[in-house]
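Running log. JK asked me to keep both predictions on one page so they can be read side by side. First protein, sequence followed by its tokens:
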Amino acid sequence: MGKKPVFATEISDMVLYLGDDGSLYKKREKGNVKEKLNQRIYRLQDRDELRLLVVEEPGKIFDTIVISLIWPKNFPQPKLNMIAVHGVGGKEIYVSENQANYVAYYVGEKALITIIASWPKGTFDLPWYYRLKDWLATRPGYLWLATSSIVALIGLLTVGILAFRRFQERVMLKPSIRTTPPGTLPPAIIGVLLRQKIGPKEILATLLDLANRGYLYMLDKENQLIFTIRKNDSVGLYGFEKALLEEIFKEKDFALRHDFSKSKINDLFLSIYDLVFRLGLFVKNPRDIHLRWRLWGVLIAIFGILGFLVSMRFFPDPPYVVLFWIGLIICGVIIFDLGHGFTAYTKEGLTALQEWLSFANFLGQADSTVINSLRPEIYIRFLPYAIVFNKGAVWSKKFSHLPFTLPNWFISDRPIHSTIDFYQSLIPLRIHVAESLIREVRPEID
């Protein structure tokens, strides 16, 4: 048994007024005071229209409901319609001069009644912001989809143009093959010279380079790398190398720290970028260029998010306008994520890059005859640079057929018979140290 319906035999009246500017007012029950409503006239592609849901599941049954709509006297007669569903016995519309009476009979508890009135386009003097809003809302969905794609492509194009400029600089280089490093710069500096940013490869290569130079011991125990400081002094260390050792190790035992200080790690990265700039390899400090483009990316994305939220509030149906803001958000993300690598090289920087790329060619292309003629320790000595050039696996494979002896700074509790075994044993070092350090860096610095 359902709830017994409540009958209201009286007539329910509602009086609505339209202003010249398309505003909608409702007459209060007592007196002649008008209350402005949120609903209004909307300008569509071919008409000015009021579409208003006036009855929504009233919860009781009415014999008759009358909704009166009054518009300015000097306006033309509108086209009128009334949609009454879910329990309405009948409906009629009566018109006299500048007033229409929408009448519904035997209105049920679940009834929905919508009144519609439309005038020729431009009849109402809508405020400019409503005209703009309605114009945007009536643009077809494919147009907004195309606009969204174009805005996203602008971000990609911006990145592409700047990347192409750097490519033009590199395409002029003529790297050959050289069998020795062109200098004594540490691997982290070479990584920034190559990619203009610091990543896990640079951190991993730096730790191996420090071990090669006698500052670290490494113990591979139960598939976990444990470290200890080998030298007590910091003679021969760059500032960032000293800071790296101080931050990773607690005192001088074999305990690897995981509670990295974000401020110290950030300072460490900044010191690397500052050193690269002081060496005269770039026209501007790479970290300043990173910061500038990432800030632009953040601002564009935030503007897109705010626009998206506003559009969802004011353009709920149809929601095509939000596609523009989605495109803007994507544009900001592209610039933020790819906005590094835009720093111009100096003449000296391009020369250094060419020489180091020549050395990289050797690491990746040396044939077996050349490899067989090298001293065994060359593999370990050049491995940090091979990692920075993304040739660590290739470099290790070239020595895999030769007898391999672990370096004196590396001890393992499992058999390591080849350079490939050794290279794979460094995976925990990359995961637990290098990548952990990178995660601690503020986005505008890395």
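And the second, directly underneath as requested:
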Amino acid sequence: MSIRRQESAADPVVEIELLLSDESVPVIAAAAAEECRFDLEEFIPRADDEHGEYYSVEGGDPEVVTEMVDEHPGREAQSLARRDDTGLVEVIVTDDSPAMVLAQHGALPRRVAVEDGEMTLAAEVPASHDASEAISAVSEAYEDARLLAQRQQSYFTPLFSHREFEEAVETALTDRQREALEVAHNGGYYAWPREVTCQELAEELGVATPTYTEHLRTAEQKLIQLLFEDGAVSEADG
């Protein structure tokens, strides 16, 4: 799940976890009716105060729950993928949702799970915002909401696990770009002071210096995109 942030990773963070069962929330109503589970996979702000919520669905017909959610005002839902009783559903929200209320008050939604007519939300609130304001905002919007846990932690949860980051890098980089990075790293290019030049690394690979430099710079740019732009990069980008 992704919302861009500019907080330092070392700033203190407050993690909050809330529970609500208000069936005016379309995904709660659909999960209760179809006895299935929703897990929020991605949360993407859009233009004109809209945002997209992307849910994996388990234990129910994605087409059926999509139709149920789509019937609610302020929701446009469509099934993006389906396999037996699992799938991926896109919900475009034009008014408020619990995750959006949290985001509007500085919290970063990390986990939203809906099952048995209940929604559990976990979010992280940076030092620049007041966690109590985010909690109060959800409680005011959804009267049955209650706080399950509130704890302080030293760091934000990483956007990627180590395995996920490796997979993202593997997808983003071409073989030559990855090779250029590996040779630079192993050769001491990123040491201070540098232990090798681009020309020497190019000679090691048997390519022209401009060619090597292009591969290296493109690879570096893609890694920066993965770090600061929520993984919005693919091999087709260069």
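Observation for JK regarding the second prediction: The chain has two domains: 13-153, 162-237.
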